[in-house]
Automatic annotation (TrEMBL):
Transmembrane stretches, start-end: 32-49
Quaternary structure note: F-type ATPases have 2 components, F(1) - the catalytic core - and F(0) - the membrane proton channel. F(1) has five subunits: alpha(3), beta(3), gamma(1), delta(1), epsilon(1). F(0) has four main subunits: a(1), b(1), b'(1) and c(10-14). The alpha and beta chains form an alternating ring which encloses part of the gamma chain. F(1) is attached to F(0) by a central stalk formed by the gamma and epsilon chains, while a peripheral stalk is formed by the delta, b and b' chains.
Name of the featured protein: ATP synthase subunit b, chloroplastic
Keyword Ion transport appears in the UniProt entry: yes
MF-aspect GO terms: proton-transporting ATP synthase activity, rotational mechanism
Coiled coil, from the record: 64-98
Length: 184
């Protein structure tokens, strides 16, 4: 510890100017050496340091300028994308509306077509029912006529004798003969 305090005490006592030598006291020579080194560095390194700082400043400014250009380009791309999005949304709305109207048209066409088909089927059904009714009525008439004819024949056969039968045939032949003369 005594060496430490001695070195500070000796700082005030410089050796005489005429002598040159090495001071082996590390604590006494270190601040002097450091101040000399810093002085030399500041004197000679000032230009290099200024150049380095100027280069760094230019790189930072260039980076800022590039960033601004990129930002402006990104903003422009964003605006273009938004415009494109609006255009696509408008087209999508138009397609949607056209699609809805087309669906409505197709729906109405399908309803009308189905309605016409149902009317035609209803007409066919009614015609078929009418035809079947007429056929059934004709069958019933035919049966009734056959039964009436058979009943009349049966009644005539039971009531007619041979003489009455011959007179009826002759009268009918006579009527056919006069009818033939009228038509000729």
């Amino acid at each position: 510890m005594k060496n430490l305090t001695d070195s500070f005490v000796y700082l005030g006592h410089w050796p005489s100017a005429g002598s040159f030598g090495f001071n082996t006291d590390i604590l006494a020579t270190n601040p002097i050496n450091l101040s000399v080194v810093f002085g030399v560095l500041i004197f000679f390194g000032k230009g290099v340091l200024n150049d380095l700082l100027d280069n760094r400043k230019q790189r930072i400014l260039n980076t800022i300028r590039n960033s601004e250009e990129l930002r402006e380009g990104a903003i422009q791309q964003l605006e273009n994308a938004r415009a494109h999005l609006r255009k696509v949304e408008t087209e999508a709305d138009q397609f949607r509306m056209n699609g809805y109207s087309e669906i409505e048209r197709e729906k109405l066409n399908l309803i009308n077509s189905t309605s016409r088909t149902l009317k035609q089927l209803e007409n066919y059904k009614n015609e078929t029912i009418l035809f079947e009714q007429q056929r059934t009525v004709n069958k019933v008439r035919e049966r009734v006529f056959q039964q009436a004819l058979q009943g009349a024949i049966g009644t005539l056969n039971s009531c007619l004798n041979t003489e009455l039968h011959l007179r009826t045939i002759n009268a009918n032949i006579g009527m056919f003969g006069t009818m033939k003369e009228i038509t000729d």
